[in-house]
Amino acid sequence: MVTVQQPEPDEQTTGEVSVPGIGLAYVIGRWVIAPLARLFYWPRIEGRGNVPRKGPVILASNHLSFIDSFAIPMASPRPVRFLAKASYFDGKGIKGWFSREFFYAVGAFPVERGAGQAALDALDQQKRMLEAGWATALYPEGTRSIDGRLYKGRTGVAFLALQTGAPVVPVGLIGTNEIMPVGAKFPRLRPRVTVRFGEPLDLSHHGPASSGRARRLATDEIMAAIHALSGQELANAYNEAPAQNPVERIRQVLPHERR
To answer: Taking every annotated instance into account, which residue ranges of this chain make up the domain Phospholipid/glycerol acyltransferase (predicted)?
Structure first.
């Protein structure tokens, strides 16, 4: 595990990290792809009014399937961005072009995966998105649950929330693993998916982002809210598979989190 001294708030930790705006692909995705998906899968959406219509917000969700990152933007009342591994965007030829445009269309932006500087760059990218007033989606578990249980949350999401002051809206996804289980290459036509948005959480009372205890307590509050929405069995352990969410790699460069 790589350990890096946590920087002071005013210290420049990364190079220039761009924050892309909304392009034509995203407009098509939101107004064409999303309505078609809702027509085919007829999702049950609850608590849309809990998502603030303006300002930075983190949508923190359980993670059951590859399509979770499409289900959340589809159900959200406002545009949602998330980070995806850069390899989805750098392919060649028609296949590479299609992959790149598709991920842009659903609100994804590329980031390099890894620990050390790559993890700090991912964190800085997410922070800039929030500072720009965007809604972003993250998975505290770090990677998809293979057995359907809800695993303990990593503290990266709490770190971002405490550092930026952005509220966290917990999200409970139900049934996405029935449409596209782990390992499946294509989605299936299955029973309805449920997307539940909980009430926004203000985590500032736990303390500063520099405190490991504050991050751990804030994360536990987030996970308790997600559990109340999803109704999953608790695993009471970390999902130790390699993190699919690049921002959750920051656990390798932050001071040791309290368990």
So the answer is: 57-176
Q: 172 or 81: which carries more pLDDT confidence?
A: 172
Q: What percent of the chain has pLDDT over 70?
A: 65
Among the listed residues 177, 192, 211, the one whose alpha carbon sits nearest the alpha carbon of residue 61: 177
Residues near 44 by Cβ (< 8 Å), separated by ≥ 6? 192, 193, 194, 195
Angle CA(228)–CA(229)–CA(230) in degrees, nearest 5?
Answer: 100
Encoded tokens for 16: 């220039």
Alpha-carbon distance of 35 to 41, in angstroms, equals 10
Dmax over CA atoms of the chain, in Å, equals 50
pTM, two decimals, is: 0.77
Per-residue pLDDT reduced to its tens digit, 152-197: 999 989 999 999 999 999 999 999 988 877 777 776 776 678 999 9
Q: What domains appear along the chain, each with residue ranges and CATH number?
A: 24-252 (3.40.1130)
Distance, CA of 203 to CA of 206 (rounded, Å):
6
